[in-house]
Amino acid sequence: MLTRSVWAFRREFALVGAFSLLVNLLMLTPTLYMLQVYDRVLTSQSELTLLAMSLLTLALFGLMAVAEWLRSRLLVRTGVRLDDRLSTQVFKASFAAHLNQAGTDAARSFSDLILVRQFLTGNGIFAFFDAPWTPIYIMVLYFLHPWLGALGLVFALVQVALAWFGHRRTVRPGEAAAKAASVAGGFLQGKLRNAEVLEAMGMVGDLQLRWSERHRDHMAQSALAQQLTHRITAWSKFVRYSQQSLALGAGALLVIDGQLSPGAMIAANVLMSRALAPIDLLVSSWRQLDSVRAAFDRLTKLLSDYPLPVAEAGQAMPVGQVVMREVSAGAAGREAPILKGVNLVVPAGAVVAIMGPSGSGKSTLARVLMGIWPQVSGDVLLDGVPLSQWDRSELGPRLGYLPQDVELFDGTIAENIARFGKVDSAQVIAAAQRTGLHEMILRFPKGYDTPMGEAGNLLSGGQRQRIALARAVYGDPVLLVLDEPNANLDDAGEAALYKAVAQLKAAGSTVFLITHRPGALAVADRILVLRDGQVQADGPRDDVLTMLRSVRPATAPLASPVPPLPPISPMPPLPPTGILPA
């Protein structure tokens, strides 16, 4: 996929190669100008010849500048088109990989794409177009004098050998330093997300000691890598400076022996530097080339493992019938499956309460019903069609999902409720009213246009959960999965939840309600009880409740009712002065 996308721009790269050919030919202009000035103009003392040669040289320099500008502009446009071609594919593939718990970092995928694009449209690609001209420049040196050509060849081989040696010595320490930096930075970022907990319980000092160990390891690895890099750089500078001086000295010796003219000596020194410049550029791009190759391989694997899905043509909108046949779900690093052989048939318009002790697989079942759990065997059918065969862009607006961990996104309250699609004000208000949020949202200064960045500090956990619930019910979905939707709700919020579920049921929606609270059973017409990943009970609400009451309390999954809290005695009034008594 990635190789085909890059190969599609072969015409543009061919034009870049043609411009590079012209640029490198015109690079001989300074050499030819020096030869003419020293060997012809100074000998003939002709000002007209000097003027003509200077004007011709300026014209060639202008042509070279235009060729440089054209190839750079062409590469920039190629990079933009390449990004347009691949960015959507990389976004969807990295999202799918993260969803399938493949360990792929979406941010790293886009960093890989940027790295490949910058290499293909920057100095890195120039090195490959210019490197073949090094033998040509050395050949021109050979025509000036065989010893100059031999000297240029020796320095070219020395630079290549030094670059190869430096790469072999520095690549592993550099990778170790980068890994240590990632470990230290990741540890710190993970703790900063829970700064309030750390500060409240006095954990900052102990965690700082653990971070210091990782930081010291990073500094040690980084110091070793920098020492090796500086050592190689010093040797590289020694070779470069020696080449310039020895080339000039060799030319002077040939002039003394009468085998070379002074103009050719100066021209040979410039030409020698120009002959080795592509090697310097290639050497400086060597490390980048390794990174680009690794990024290219990662992107190729990502795009091949997660190609763009092909939508099924002519699919009707779902009704909400759910069928599960021998469904099992596992997780990476866990031998025993989380769900074991679940069979379920739920007609459209039913409300199913899913209950069971913690760790019984309820949340995993919710993700399986949404088609977002990676390791699933068996059949999960929506209206007789496997979930994987539905076009997610068309199916998604017809589904509603409220996970346990509520996450609201950067944007306004209305945009969050409308799922960041086109905001239908009537449907947004209807969803807010259905979850009892409308009056609360209107109390904000900007109402529904309040950014979540501002509202986030003003919302309680229950209010955030109700906004996420409004997002789930937006658009009257035909299938709704709510995972502990009343975990953070007060009595008013819980009443609004049950009312919303009843309204969705009346509209024909299929609702799965995961809960630990027996009060939620009032809106359910069916109960599914899980234990250890298996269905312990399934059937009409009253039948399942009767069966559960006949089971020993030690094995019953339902929690016993919570006794009422004792009344809180009122606080005595403060003295008139507002100062507490001693």
Beta fraction of the residues? 5-15%
- The count of DSSP E runs of length 2 or more, i.e. the number of strands, is 10
CATH superfamily of one domain: P-loop containing nucleotide triphosphate hydrolases
Main sheet, how many strands, which sense, barrel? 6 strands, mixed
Strand line-up in the sheet with most strands:
6-7-8-3-9-10
Q: Based on the structure given, which CATH architecture of one domain is correct?
A: 3-Layer(aba) Sandwich
Structural class: alpha/beta
Number of helices: 21
Question: First CA to last CA: what distance?
Answer: 78 Å
CATH class of one domain: Alpha Beta
Helix % is 55-70%
Unreliably modeled segments: 554-582
Work out the radius of gyration.
36 Å
The 3D shape can be described as elongated
Provide mean pLDDT, rounded.
80
CATH topology of one domain: Rossmann fold
What labels describe this entry?
21 helices; disordered C terminus; 10 strands; six-stranded mixed beta sheet; alpha/beta; elongated; about 575 residues; single chain; four-stranded antiparallel beta sheet; Rossmann fold
Structure description:
The chain is α/β, with parallel strands linked by helices. The chain has a domain at 322-549: P-loop containing nucleotide triphosphate hydrolases (Rossmann fold), CATH 3.40.50. 60% of the residues lie in helices and 10% in strands. The protein contains 21 helices and ten strands. The strands form two sheets. A six-stranded mixed β-sheet has the order 6-7-8-3-9-10, sandwiched between helices. Helix 8 runs antiparallel to helix 10 (204-256), helix 16 (425-434) crosses helix 19 and helix 19 (461-473) runs parallel beside helix 20. The longest helix has 53 residues, at 47-99.
